[in-house]
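Postdoc handover notes: sequence design on the structure in folder B. Input tokens:
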């Protein structure tokens, strides 16, 4: 308990540009971090991964800590994001899942029937203890840099479980969703519980913010999203709203943290996604590169900050193109704030691509800070 109290009181970061912008206040500079900044494009990450599989790395506290810190050291970003994978809580919930190189998550026994749903057990927090340990180590190592925890949203997890792996059209997923709605909602309920448990583990260990990734939600119509997905995603945020680091003056209480909801190809869903996350006091909606931030500001609910939205491919196009695009995103973020968004966090519209030159990323961060 003493260690918990020390950690809790030390992680008061009132000057953090990221936390300030996410909370709807004016930061000293435009904050910037990148999805998938931990890994992929970094040679120091590749050196570690050459000796460990992805799953091994995701369940090793020291490796999680080191990989999370690498982009902070190299790029000077305004937030670290916990190195993990969205299928980690599935492994800790009784699902036989592996991350296959050049393929992605592969499920040994896909979930296709009502009886299969029973394979999704409640999250075993002992199995994700290395994640909690890594969070504690990172809180001690990051100084004034906040740490973002994350999880996959129930729909994206369900799509992997039903399809058995990555899918272009999500045929089996949508067939279950539309044709066997009872089975679908039972599966989504179980996965929502797993997601809440995984995020709560990270919050209890000390993360400063959380992000829920719904990578495949953009494959849905707005009507289907509202019927089959929104209630479950909303419950994640509802149950976590107001949770976080315990205060010394109130050992039983909690401290609210920024919560971000992000998906790819979700222009038509941004309003509904903002409804899900707006239950918290510091809601943020991530925007991909297909939608301008100013347009997104008109789609989301009042009181929401925006995150995004440089096209990751731009980082492969050479510095003159990158510089111009970064300036445009910063300007667009200012227009979004003028249009009603409470703040702007600079990010990519999805994750850093493996061929990206790390030097370009470092220069982009410095440029954002200069603006």
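Designed sequence:
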């Amino acid at each position: 308990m003493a260690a918990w109290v020390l950690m809790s009181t030390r992680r008061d970061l009132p000057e953090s540009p990221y936390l300030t912008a996410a909370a709807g206040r004016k930061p000293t500079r435009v904050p910037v971090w990148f999805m998938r900044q931990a890994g992929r494009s970094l040679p120091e990450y590749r050196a570690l991964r050459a000796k460990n599989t992805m799953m091994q790395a995701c369940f090793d506290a020291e490796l999680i800590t080191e990989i999370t810190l690498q982009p902070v050291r190299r790029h000077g970003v305004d937030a670290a994001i916990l190195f993990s994978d969205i299928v980690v809580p599935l492994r800790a919930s009784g699902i036989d899942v592996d991350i296959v190189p050049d393929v992605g998550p592969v499920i040994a026994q896909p979930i296709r029937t009502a009886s299969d749903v029973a394979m999704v057990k409640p999250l075993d927090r002992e199995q994700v203890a290395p994640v909690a340990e890594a969070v504690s180590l990172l809180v001690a190592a990051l100084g004034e840099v906040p740490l973002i925890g994350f999880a996959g949203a129930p729909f994206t997890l369900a799509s992997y479980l039903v399809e058995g792996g990555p899918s272009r059209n999500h045929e089996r997923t949508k067939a279950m969703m539309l044709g066997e709605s009872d089975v679908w909602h039972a599966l989504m309920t179980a996965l929502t519980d797993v997601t809440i448990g995984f995020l709560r583990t990270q919050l209890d260990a000390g993360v400063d913010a959380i992000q829920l990734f719904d990578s495949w939600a953009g494959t849905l119509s707005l009507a289907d999203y509202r019927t089959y997905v929104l209630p479950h995603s909303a419950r994640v945020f509802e149950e976590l709203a107001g949770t976080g680091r315990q205060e010394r003056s109130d050992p039983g209480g909690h401290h609210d943290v920024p919560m971000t909801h992000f998906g790819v190809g979700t222009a038509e869903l941004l309003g509904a996604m903002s409804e899900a996350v707006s239950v918290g006091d510091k809601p943020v909606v991530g925007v991909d590169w297909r939608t301008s931030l100013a347009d997104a500001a008109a789609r989301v609910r009042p009181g929401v900050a925006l995150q995004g939205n440089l096209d990751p491919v731009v980082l492969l196009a050479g510095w003159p193109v990158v510089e111009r695009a970064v300036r445009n995103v910063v300007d667009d973020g200012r227009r979004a704030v003028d249009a009603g968004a409470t703040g702007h966090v600079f990010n990519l519209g999805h994750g850093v691509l493996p061929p990206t030159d790390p030097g370009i990323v470092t220069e982009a961060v410095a440029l954002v800070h200069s603006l």
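Context for whoever picks this up: The longest strand covers residues 147-152. Don't rerun without checking with the PI first.
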